[in-house]
Amino acid sequence: MTENTFYGLGIAPGLIDVINSLKFTVPTPIQHKAIPPAIEGKDIIGIAQTGTGKTLAFGIPMVQKIAASNGKRKGLILVPTRELAIQVNETMVKLAKPFRMTTSVLIGGESMFAQLLSLRQRPSIIIATPGRLNDHLQQKKLRIDDVAVLVLDEADRMLDMGFLPQIRNILDTTPKDRQTMLFSATIPKSVISIATQYMRMPLTTEIAPSGTAPEIVSQEMFVVKKESKNHVLGELLKQYKGSILLFVRTRWAAARVAKQIRSMGHAVAEIHSDRNLSQRKDALRGFKTGQYRVLVATDIAARGIDVTGIELVINYDLPDDPENYVHRIGRTGRAGVEGHAITLATPDQGRDIKKIQSILKVTIPVAEHPSFQSQKFIPTPSGTRSFFPPGKRKGARRPIFS
Question: What b/e sequence results for 173-185 when a residue is b if at least 16 CB atoms lie within 10 Å of its CB, and e otherwise?
Fold first, then answer.
């Protein structure tokens, strides 16, 4: 046995065959550390950078345990966004199908009736956003008292989005003997405190310190006047020829910036809370296939886009929550391919950049560009209001969608 294979991790031979057929040969560090204790039935708190294979880390143990129950128990995976639910389901279907296990996705924006039809097929694994799952529970269309394995994926984001009441209700409804696994790239102490109330002596597997950015993502920052951002963006779109994921703060900004990029002659799509599920699916599909070179997104997409080959992430606006910076830039530099991230900061955002750098534990270099003049950060007097508005601080946001 070698540490560079899935053999010897406690995975059943039949599931090893499935993993091999899917061309997964070398486990990532989080998979190598989390899978053995998870298969033993231990509760897990997994901390790893975005894009390091967390879905397989909890998916393999879940499928093995559900398969061993001969259909008597099921698995439940909670995620914060619709996009992430669809992404996780794609992986779970591949693992579960060979064992004649089915999945059901319960997310907002899709027909409740269609989801009810799916639930009538008695799925082995349910992937859901907390709000929609609670809708089904309240209507007594679903029982989760037979859940054997419960996963909270991107738990910090779910709590940050205001899903704590729904999550508590779900946790209280599932059986006490369930196995609970919590995974995320960033897990603040407050989240761990809340999670451990519902976990039994959880084992923490930390591949990188919470908030660590992927090492293969290089970063740089331009300090520019707000009114110069569009000019700077135009120059960057000329300089970089590959696919670009661009983040803005609001859905209004997404529509405005997408329109500007379109006027520059680039194929662009947008994804935010004002777009319905069909539009968001089309935008992601078009971005993956190359129909759109640029995807403009709010932080709704920071945890739900699994696209390999993104050359560049542009932070056109700084995120509301400094920790979301990690998730944004984690959209590039995936599957072992190097990536790059550029941030456009304004002169009055020096304090907010310091917050991001304190989380990263690195300094983002300020770059110069021949096509525009760089500015300097303005010293911020003590007591001056931060960029992050009071209603947008961590833990203060309401769910944008369910």
Answer: ebeeebbbbbbbb
pLDDT (average), residues 260-266? 94
User: CB–CB of 183/155 below 8 Å?
Assistant: yes
Q: Which residue has the tokens 């059986």?
A: 175
102-124 pLDDT tens trace: 999 999 888 899 999 999 999 99
Share of the chain above pLDDT 70, in %: 88
The answer to whether residues 333 and 339 touch, using CB atoms and an 8 Å cutoff, is yes
Q: Where are the domains of the chain?
A: 13-206, 217-386
Question: How does DSSP classify residue 97?
Answer: G
Crossing angle of helices 54-68/82-96, nearest 10°? 50
Per the CATH hierarchy, to which homologous superfamily does domain 13-206 belong? P-loop containing nucleotide triphosphate hydrolases (3.40.50.300)
Which tens digits make up the pLDDT trace of 377-387? 988 665 444 44
pLDDT, tens digit, for every residue of 160-191?
778 888 999 999 999 999 999 998 777 777 67
Average pLDDT, the chain: 85
CATH code, 217-386: 3.40.50.300
Backbone angles phi, psi at 281, to 5 degrees: -65, -45
User: Nearest-5° angle of CA 60, CA 160, CA 165?
Assistant: 85
Query: Is 335 in a helix, a strand, or coil?
Result: coil
Residue 201: count of CB within 10 angstroms of its CB: 7
